[in-house]
Design goal:
With 96 residues, the protein is mostly helical. The chain has 4 helices and no strands.
Amino acid sequence: MNFHLFDLAGFIGVLLIIVAYLLLQLDKLPSSSPRYSLMNAAGALLIIVSLVFKFNLSAFIVEAFWFLISLLGLWRALISPKNSQRSAGINGKGQH
């Protein structure tokens, strides 16, 4: 079996998605976190890159939706008032 650069991209993408899900299940990373959505989006995009070289329609459809939904989650996390207050250094009780 030959291991190509696109295989490595897909493998890293799978690892990103699995690690994000593991951190979610271990309560180490909330689903509302921009990092969670970013890890999922990056993972899906890397898998899509690998699929360009070894195409599989059903896998491509899953990863395309995974990527788009992750972008939606990232956008929502970045525009949420809670996240804006956190980035401004305010936790609702004054400054930290």
